[in-house]
Structure formats: C-alpha cells, structure tokens
Amino acid sequence: MEHLANDGKLDPVQEAFIEAGAFQCGFCTPGFVMMTKQLLDEHPEPSDDQIRHYLSGNLCRCGAYPEIIQAVKLAARKTHSGLPLITEDQHS
C-alpha cells in the first residue's frame, strides 16, 4: 500500500481508513483500501449499496464493516471535496 502515498503523504483513502478505525487486525485492510481507491475512481460519490456491492469480494473476520463503510464515505469526501475530518454523526 505504500505506493499510494505521495511524497511521504498518505493517500486520502489511507487517511480515511485510519481516521475511521476501519481495521482491527489489519489483515483485510490492504484489499479494502485498494478496492476503495478503484471504487472512488469509478463512482466518486458512491451510495451505501454501491459500497457494499463493490467491496463484497473482501472479507473482514473482525467485523469492522460499519467502520469500513464510514471510511469509504470519508475517503470520498476527502478525495473529491477536500474535507479532512470525520463528522460526529459518522461515529454513530
């Protein structure tokens, strides 16, 4: 995943996964990050259903799916609107 970083700065997708706590053991995280990157290239503002469908081939044994969905939404915001922070309603 290091190749997503640019000049030592994490990609917005990587930042979003960290900020949303969208990993536990970290085993599935690289796959989710790469699929999220591709999803956002194809669908800059994906719906929850699009996110679930697109990422359905990746499995998370820790059950971090709610956080992963939030990370994808945050990554979309960071990538396409430049918003850097998670809002309080994204935690619920």
* Percent range of helical residues: 40-55%
Specify Rg, calculated over alpha carbons: 12 Å
Uncertain runs with pLDDT below 50, 5 residues or more?
85-92
CATH topology descriptor: DNA polymerase, domain 1
Largest sheet properties:
none
* DSSP helical segment count: 4
SSE ordering? HHHH
Structural class: mainly alpha
Tertiary shape: globular
CATH superfamily, by name, is [2Fe-2S]-binding domain
Q: Total number of β-strand segments?
A: 0
Overall CATH class? Mainly Alpha
Rounded mean pLDDT is: 85
Q: Strand share of the residues?
A: under 5%
Query: Termini distance?
Result: 28 Å
How many distinct domains? 1
* CATH architecture title: Orthogonal Bundle
Chain oligomer state: single chain
Task: Please specify the SSE layout and strand pairing.
Blueprint (H helix, E strand, L loop, with lengths): L11 H8 L9 H14 L5 H8 L9 H16 L12
Helix pairs in contact: 1-4
In short:
With 92 residues, the chain is mainly α.
What structural keywords apply?
mainly alpha, single chain, 50% helix, 92 residues, disordered C terminus
Explain this structure.
The chain is mostly helical and 92 residues long. The chain has one domain: DNA polymerase, domain 1 (Orthogonal Bundle). It has helices spanning 12-19, 29-42, 48-55, 65-80. Helix 1 crosses helix 4 (65-80). It is globular, with a radius of gyration of 12 Å. Mean pLDDT is 85; it is low at 85-92.
